[in-house]
Recover the amino acids of this structure.
């Protein structure tokens, strides 16, 4: 990695003559960070890659036996693991769609002459800055069937949110929508405010209807930045752990991160969990790749 | 808005204002409920219908800080009168303050977890922002071969799911004795925030005109001097914003803390939920702990309001 950083600099650089050369400064500034990330991120991942081919259990003293691809085969043939992925996918779809609808909708509302717009925007952004685990916990009280304010406000009587296996995942997603719609709103607002005003004026002169204006002007111009929000939230929702783990312990809310956590730290199937971690990792890296491509695309404009 | 406004447009604007207010109220309701529950007497926290108007009291905060136990019998009138005001508050709830053999008041687990959160979040922020600033300057000003790939590599480490990284880290920490230590968490949070800090700081560095340093170099500064005396002061706002983001991330982090700590170095996020065990939790005390924990983040969010967009897009979108 260190050699990859080496390259020739502008030889006319005057600083090269005095003090440290630009090349050594650059290496001094960049290499420690790269090394730090290699030691504390890449090395551990190589370590777990090795374990993913063994039957190692961190709870016992037995030596690890090499089992080849057995762990991967077991996982991919396990209908329960597939079910965890299905639950995760359901969660991602519900919470991301919810966040886009609420977040983009709120941004459309805010993109007008609203008094105290700055203050309201900041207040609306508050939920996404707070700790998922700590605030998520408090939603247990809000969802409580007998004295929760949600049932009271909606007049739902003793409706079970978290203890109903069919409802629990949606309840978790609803809390996630509350926390992260502001994120979509923030990005949408940036996109909306960048749409040139003269396009709307031209549309008005042409007597274009509001729907036509929305689908032909607003949406296409906001789409790239909205796409960033969607990909980022998809990635985060896919990795979700805190909220679902704290709010419920239903089998129907066992998203893949929770399965992984239980496999590794409660069942102590270390080798198997390392293999599952790798399957999850490859999926996350694939989404990250798409995300960065979009980021760079928007950045260039 | 255009100067010519039709009546329908004006009506539409009114509707939008009302809708915005409704949305804002709904979004803030859970936060308001946390804040108000933190000042309620225990018997009003879980009433039907919910209690909105009440006389606020600070007993939840007192209970949050001291170790308490159930009282077997009512305290005598003298005992009650001799106790300081805060101890009376605990007694009013049918509990007593736990004291050690020397009569010293025992603290609950909370102050200690709060301190751990501070230590871990501040140290990891300083490290991540410090290293990130240098690295961002390196990427911003010098030609680096394979720059896009290196930057992608750096960002991808930020995207790894915590549980995935935690499995090998747990084993490695166990081997070297870093489990349940401040340094164990600090290293993890530094690594996690470092990539974010590089990306965000690079955006800020790119905005500082190169001409500033070039002028300094012509004036006889070395590149190092130019960096410390010209670039760093120019980047101060960016450094502060990056630091606040890193602090909030480390402060809020849950999964690593849950897995890597259990007592000594435990931070507040895994501790607060662990207080809701079986039976009937005292939601006023949980709300008080939550409120104190959320307060720094709420203040920072307000200070950061103009940098939020940049922060959440890793510096890609600046507004």
């Amino acid at each position: 990695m260190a050699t990859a950083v080496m390259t020739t600099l502008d030889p006319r650089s005057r600083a090269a003559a005095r003090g440290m050369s630009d090349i050594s400064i650059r290496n001094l500034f960049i290499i420690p960070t790269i090394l730090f990330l290699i030691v504390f991120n890449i090395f551990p991942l190589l370590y777990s890659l090795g374990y993913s081919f063994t039957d190692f259990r961190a709870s016992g003293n037995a030596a690890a036996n090499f089992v080849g691809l057995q762990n991967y085969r077991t996982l991919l043939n396990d209908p329960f693991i597939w079910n965890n992925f299905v639950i995760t996918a359901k969660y991602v779809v519900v919470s991301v769609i919810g966040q886009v609808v609420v977040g983009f909708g709120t941004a459309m509302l805010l993109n007008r002459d609203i008094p105290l717009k700055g203050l309201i925007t900041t207040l609306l952004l508050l939920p996404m800055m707070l700790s998922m685990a700590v605030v998520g916990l408090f939603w247990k009280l809000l969802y409580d069937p007998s004295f929760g304010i949600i049932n009271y406000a909606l007049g739902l009587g003793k409706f079970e949110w978290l203890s109903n296996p069919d409802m629990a995942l949606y309840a978790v997603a609803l809390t996630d929508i509350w926390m992260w719609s502001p994120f979509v709103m923030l990005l949408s607002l940036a996109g909306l405010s960048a749409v040139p005003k003269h396009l709307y004026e031209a549309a008005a002169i042409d007597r274009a209807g509001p729907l036509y204006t929305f689908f032909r002007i607003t949406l296409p111009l906001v789409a790239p930045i909205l796409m960033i929000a969607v990909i980022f939230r998809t990635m985060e929702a896919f990795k979700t752990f805190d909220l679902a783990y704290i709010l419920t312990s239903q089998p129907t809310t066992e998203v893949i991160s929770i399965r992984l956590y239980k496999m590794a730290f409660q069942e102590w199937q270390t080798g198997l969990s390392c293999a599952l971690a790798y399957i999850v990792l490859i999926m996350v890296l694939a989404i990250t790749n798409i995300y960065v491509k979009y980021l760079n695309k928007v950045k260039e404009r | 808005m255009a100067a010519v406004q039709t009546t329908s447009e004006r009506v539409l604007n009114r509707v939008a204002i009302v809708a915005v207010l409704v949305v804002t109220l709904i979004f803030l309701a859970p936060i308001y409920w946390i804040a108000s529950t933190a000042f309620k007497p225990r018997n009003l926290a879980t009433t039907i219908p919910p209690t909105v108007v009440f006389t606020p009291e600070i007993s939840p905060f007192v209970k949050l800080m001291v170790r308490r136990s159930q009282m077997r019998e009512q305290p005598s009138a003298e005992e009650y009168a001799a106790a300081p005001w805060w101890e009376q508050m605990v007694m009013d709830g049918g509990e007593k303050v736990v004291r050690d053999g020397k009569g010293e008041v025992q603290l609950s687990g909370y102050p200690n977890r709060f301190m751990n959160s501070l230590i871990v979040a501040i140290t990891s922020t300083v490290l991540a922002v410090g290293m990130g600033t240098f690295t961002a300057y390196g990427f911003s000003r010098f030609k680096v071969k394979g720059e896009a790939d290196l930057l992608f590599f750096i960002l991808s480490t930020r995207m790894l799911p915590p549980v995935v990284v935690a499995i090998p880290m747990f084993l490695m920490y166990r081997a070297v004795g870093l489990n349940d230590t401040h340094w164990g968490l600090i290293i993890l949070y530094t690594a996690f925030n470092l990539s974010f800090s590089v990306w965000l700081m690079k955006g800020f560095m790119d905005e500082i005109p190169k001409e500033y340093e070039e002028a300094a170099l012509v004036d006889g500064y070395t590149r190092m001097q130019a960096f410390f005396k010209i670039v760093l002061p120019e980047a101060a706002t960016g450094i502060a914003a990056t630091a606040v983001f890193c602090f909030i991330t480390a402060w809020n982090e849950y999964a690593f803390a849950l897995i890597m700590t259990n007592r000594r170095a435990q931070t507040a996020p895994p501790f607060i939920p662990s207080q809701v065990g079986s039976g009937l939790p005292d939601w006023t005390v949980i709300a008080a702990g939550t409120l104190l924990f959320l307060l720094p983040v709420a203040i920072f969010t307000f200070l950061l309001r103009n940098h939020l967009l940049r922060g959440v897009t890793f510096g890609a979108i600046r507004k």
About this structure: Residues 24 and 105 of chain A are 51 Å apart (CA to CA). The domain at 78-300 of chain A is CATH 1.10.3720.10 (MetI-like fold).
